[in-house]
Each structure stands twice: as structure tokens, then as C-alpha cells.
Amino acid sequence: MAISSFLFLCQWVPNLHGQAQAFNASLSGAVFDNTGAAVPGATVTLSNPEKGFSRTFATSSEGRYSFTLVPAGTYTLKVENAGFRVYTQAGIVLAVGQSANQDVTLEVGAVTEEVTVTASAPILNTGDANVSSDVTQRQAVELPLNLRNVFGLVLLNSSVNNSQQNQALNPPGSQGTADQDIAFFNFGGGRFGTTAFLLDGHWDGAGDWDGTIYVPSVDELQEFKIQTNAFTAQYGWSMGNVVNAITKSGTNSFHGNVFEFLRNNNLDANYFFNNRAGIPNPQFKRNQFGFTAGGPLSIPKLYRQRDKTFIFGAYEGLRQQTPLTLVTTVPTSDFRAGNFSALLGTPTGTDALGRTVLAGQIYNPFTTRKVTAGQVDPTTGLTATQSAFIRDPFAGNIIPDGLRDTVAKNLLQYWPNPTGGGLVNNYTASGGAPVGVDKYTVRVDHVISDRSRMFARWSQERQFKQLAGELFGSNDVGGPGTVAPDNRWDIAGNYSLTLSPTFVVSVNLGYNRWVE
After folding, report:
1. Which residues pair with 71 in a beta bridge?
2. Cβ neighbours around 456 below 10 Å, total
3. CA atoms of 260 and 252, how far apart (whole Å)
4. Peptide bond into 300 cis (omega under 30)
């Protein structure tokens, strides 16, 4: 299966909102003096030095200001005007897709004087009527997550449930399908499979069953928003639910981490029914490991723009070994030769010719014929006691070699021989289905000027699952050793240009593909 999608979006944004706002944020508000009068012409600056972001706005005649297409992050707001003290507010957190409002009241005083607000004041969302909740990077890193699937945190929203719950309910030896289970999220009692997944502003969903194509690793995710109600036109292709995620970017200082998560049967409690039956805890091993690194892009003697170009990279690997045990029934050597005499049991009645019918008896289908009550059957010379269709049984319950189908004979070579006695549950085997996943992400952000910026990101996930085969046998067509590929790509890019405080251009590109 191959799933691909392409999104090209170019919009001239008249004021505050547009499609690109889906993964950016906006901050607007008004500037007043201490009498409540609007202050026109005040200089408002929003900045984040770590990401090289700084934008200035002159308030309108009504004292209004507006910053659009602002990357999610933590910012400082500064307001200056002649005759008033400088106002500075640090620690303003803008979440993905947020339309925040922050009004400012200036105090009369000299420009050399400054009023600094260090506590984070509540930021109101007055730009739309969206109902949403945010999951921060700290929550993603510190909260426990089976298989480290960040979208498992969607269940923290009180209106969401997942009827499948496979990730939580499967035993430790089973293979997780967390990237697919998230398609079954139910928002507010709505239908399953109607969730829109966005990653860095573009569609991240498979078109046929609405699951995600690329799930960012915990350490490459910056944050995501869960939106659960009717919303603005930028999300118009969804039926009511949006999970909007953004990845990390580099900053003007170097940072990174290395991690290893281990889970095995020595750390897991055994199941109640295993303990009750005296079965030991099955062997299980899982390792998830990786690293992230980010900072300014610098090439000695060629390129040194510490506050202009930033790079971020992430890698995560999963290695899981799950031994499996199988108990089933396979044909015995007599059955392979067409001798089914072992199936013959006690009499269960008589047929229309008065012959005894035995349990497990096999009949020759080519001898099917109709007999009439009171008349002699020409084949057996017996007189029928009733009218009916009859067949003749194979002597000794043995099918002659000439009547055994050639295709069936060839199929028998793929069945292993019994490992124990008896006719049922006579085969026991052990095998394994190793699973490996590798995720890679590289993102580059570049600040062209204080009015324009761009980024590009490449993400790839490679999964390899070794099949155990239906019977864990060396002759199984489907295993062991057969590898089931599951490869995914997600590419995103954006260019934004602020021509004026109320005139913005944004071009958003996205491409993804899933092959399995």
C-alpha cells in the first residue's frame, strides 16, 4: 500500500488568521494609558532571541497591535512610547494554533523608566471560539507512555476515549500498534476515525483509514494541541477533532539529550492467570533509545550565522524481542497417507440401506446416488428402507491414493510433523517475531530578516517486522525470516513574509508517503 499526499498553500492573510496559523500562533491586543484611553503610535516589540525572532508593530489609531504567524514558544513583549515608562513582560507562552490577546496599560513617566512584569499573566484567547487543550513538551517527556507514543496523551483530554485500547491492554509479549490505534479516538461521542492529524501545519493522516503516517518521537516534539469542537475554516476538512503537533527547532545555543528506555520480563509482574496455572512470566525484551541535538548552524570558515540559521536532529530506535509459543493440531503420518481409521468411533445410527453409520466415517463423494424405499440398490444389492440420497463409505476409512488431490498432497509438505502423540494438540513449537523501528528527523530554520523566515524538515520512519509464520516451522511460506516492511516519510516546509502588520504571505508545503 502506498499513501501519499501533497499540500500546497499560498495565502494572503488580511489580518489575523489563515491556514498557516494552524501551526503558528498569534498575539494581539490594545495599548491604553492609566485613564483607559487608547495610545496610538506606540512601539510594540515581540521577541524570542533564542530563535532569532523579533518583530515590531506600531499601534493603530485605536491603540491596537497584532502579531501573526508567530512560531509557538516563549516570548517577551515590550511597549514603548514617549511620555510613558517602558513596559516589558517576559514569559509569554504562545501555544500551537493559539490566538492570544494581551492588553497593556502604560504608566506615565520618563522613557528611561521601565515597568517589568516577570510573572506569566493569563493570556486570553479572544480570537476564536475554539475549545482546546495543550500538551506541552514537559508533559510528553515526564508522563509514562507505553511504546513512547506521544499521541497516547490525547487521552488526557476529558472528552476523548479509545474503545480499542490495544496499546494498554495487550500483554507485554504482543506487538504494539499505537500509531494505528490513535485512528480510533472518539471525541465527545463522535464517530471514530474522523480525527485530523496535523504536523508542522500539514496533513499527517492516511487517506483511507485516517490514522497517522508519521508519529514524532517524544523528544522531537515541541507540543501539540487537542481541539474538540467546531472551529475556524483553517481546519474545515475535519469532522470535528484536530490534533495539531509541531516539532522542535534549533536555537542559538547548543542543546541535546541521549536516552535509553528498557523494559523486560524481569521488570514486569506476571499475569494473574499465569500465576494461577504455574506458568512463569514469558520472556520479553524491549529497548527504546536515541538522541537529539540542536543549535546554530555553523560551518567553520564558510558560514557563521549564530542568530540566523538553526538546525535540529533527532533519532529514536526500537528493538523488541518477543518469544512466542504455539500449541496446535497437525496431520499425523497416517492422515498424510490417507488413512483416517483412527477417526472411526462408535455407531451413531443406520443409513437408508440399513448399514451402520460410525462417528468419524468418511464417504466417497463419487458414489452419491438416490435410493427408493422398497427397491433394491443395484450397487450393494440391499433393499432400501426409505427413500434418500446415500454414499458408500471408504473401506477402513482409508482414501485411495488415486482419489487424493494432487494440490492437497503438495500442501502437506508445508505442514510440520507432530511433536507429540494423539490426534489433537499434537504440535508444540516456539518462535519469535522481532520488531525494529528507526526514526530520523532533520529540521533547519532560517531567519531571512525580521519580516521573513522559513524552515524545512525531513522525517523518516523505517519499521521491520520478522514474521514467525503460521506454524513457526522452517517450511512456512510466511516465515520465519520473512520481513514485512513498513516505511514512512514526512516532509514539511514553510516560508512566511510579513509585508505589513496586517498583510502577511505564507507558503506551506507538505508531502508524506507510507509503504507497507
Report:
1. 24
2. 16
3. 27
4. no
Position 108 pLDDT exceeds 60: yes
The whole-angstrom separation of Cα 228 and Cα 216 is 21
The C-alpha atoms of residue 433 and residue 452 are separated, in whole angstroms, by 50
| Antiparallel, parallel or unpaired: β 356-358 and 369-371 | unpaired
The total of other beta-carbon atoms located within 10 Å of residue 449's CB is 9
Q: For the chain, how many structural domains are there in total?
A: 3
Distance CA 317, CA 148 (A): 11
127 Cα distance to chain centroid: 30
DSSP 501: T
Residues 306 and 298: their CA atoms lie apart, in Å, by 7
445 and 402 both lie in a single domain:
no
Asked which of 88, 117, 146 is the last residue of a domain, the reply is 117
> pLDDT tens digits, residue range 434-490?
888 999 999 999 999 888 899 999 999 998 877 666 666 655 655 555 667 788 999
> Model pTM?
0.69
Q: What percent of the chain has pLDDT over 70?
A: 78
Q: Output the domain CATH number for residue 66.
A: 2.60.40.1120
Could you tell me which of 431, 405, 135 has the C-alpha nearest to residue 283?
431
- Span 355-372, pLDDT tens digits: 999 999 999 999 999 999
312 and 285 assigned to the same domain: yes
Instruction: Give the pLDDT of residue 470.
Output: 62
End-to-end CA separation in angstroms for the chain: 6
- Report the alpha-carbon distance of residue 280 to residue 268 in Å, rounded: 12
User: Does one domain contain both 170 and 59?
Assistant: no
**pLDDT reading at 191 higher than 80:** no
- What is the distance between the alpha carbons of residues 204 and 201, in angstroms, rounded to a whole number? 9
Tell me if 26 sits within 8 A of 125, measured CB to CB. Answer: no
Determine, yes or no, domain membership for 366. Answer: yes
Closest of 140, 190, 130 to residue 161, by C-alpha:
190
- Sequence-separated contacts (24+) of 50-54 with Cβ below 8 Å: 50/251, 50/252, 50/253, 51/249, 51/251, 51/252, 51/310, 51/445, 51/447, 52/252, 52/307, 52/308, 52/310, 52/447, 52/453, 53/447, 53/453, 54/450
